[in-house]
Write a structure and sequence with these properties.
binds adenosine-5'-diphosphate, alpha+beta, histidine kinase, ATP-binding, five-stranded mixed β-sheet, HisK_dim/P_dom, binds magnesium ion, 3 domains, Arp2/3 complex 21 kDa subunit ARPC3, single chain, 9 strands, two-stranded antiparallel sheet, 423 residues, two-component regulatory system, Heat Shock Protein 90, elongated, kinase
Length: 423
Amino acid sequence: MIAEKLLLNVLIVLMPLMVMSFFVNDRKESQSKVILTTLLAIAAVLCMVFAFEEQGLYWDLRYVLLVLAFLYGGRRAGWIVCGVILLTRTYLGGDHIIIGYVVVVVSSTIFNLYANRYRQVNQKWKRVCFVISLVFLPTFIQLTLLTIYLQLLGDFQYQFGQVIFYIFVLMGTLIVAVGFATLLLEQMLERRRMQEEMERAVKMNAISELAASIAHEVRNPLTVVKGFLQLMQKDEKGKNNDYFSIALCEMNRAEEIISDYLNFAKPHSKNVQVMEVNQVLREIVNILTPYALKENVELKIEGSNKTTVRSDQNQFKQVLINLIKNAIEATPKNGKVNVDLEEDKTVVKITITDTGKGMSNEQLTNIGTLFYSTKDKGTGLGTMVSFRIIAEMGGTLRYESKVNVGTKVTIVLPVDSNILHNE
Ligand code: ADP
Ligand code: MG
């Protein structure tokens, strides 16, 4: 008899979740929370109405619904379901009503306390186990309280074997109900997350395509203007010469931003080739030396070998320029930036060390996220693009930094195993 009733309870527990799965896709989160709370409350009432009742005791699965309300619906949903359970219990009456109240309120308080911790659990299976262990708690309290209470009253009319059997059935159905319910809810949430993710990706894609085509169109007139400015500067001897320099400098900056952006938005237009790291590195250091001199920073390169890697050369150069430029920009006058090249059989390691202002832990966690920059005219694209390009090359990019001491950027790349073919 108890088994039938409790199996019916399992069905009642699962019903609201089945109904939910029809709603979850096209509702806002707040709306679906209201629906979930209502359904859980109705199910709780049904569970208690269809409980197995014997000598004024109700055996049912109301705590499953209570715990689901707290963990998935939030605090408010939890307390609403708690209230509904208390009301129903009052309506149903029975002998041990006080124990019923106490257990419901105590378990609600416990669920309330654990709700936050539950949100930090990430893995699906861990979450299911968490809920199962949580729902055992009130059952355990209830049974202990009942035993003590009935013992005290001296009218413990249950036979020991019978109680064990009831507990066994209750635990079994509890595990089944709460396990299935959590799995269903988790799946529903995952589906919802995926859908949101997809919608965002579609939007992002449209925006970045548009922006990329604009950036591309802007680059051509920019190059033309820059060329003419350079021509005009040659013939200009007066004070306009300075203006030309500034204009050209800003043009270069605009071009850099655009190429960073295009790299970010269109990472797939690639021309992968094998190249010697040493050669590329020295070329970039040569390009950046005048800039370092202007900033009064010493830029040195150490180490040399014939290691080769495989990548789009322009993208790889872009990474090196971004990172070395950041290092120079962070370094005060008379500081040092060292670029180091090491080889270790299967990997090649490039380190860029500066004696600059460094970064705090918080800054370190933000680095590489889109648009994170602490500079007035910064874009935050440089590191973001670099992380992505290095990841595409199968390598890693790591930052270590101490405020006011300096920063060390380590790039580790897999060595291209084929010896240079073109020599
Ligand atoms: P931007 O240079 O346009 O600001 P980046 O993506 O290149 O954008 O860099 C993001 C931020 O990371 C910088 O604004 C700076 O705060 C920090 N950063 C990067 N490299 C260094 C470094 N070597 N030393 C100190 N801070 C750095
Ligand atoms: Mg930068």
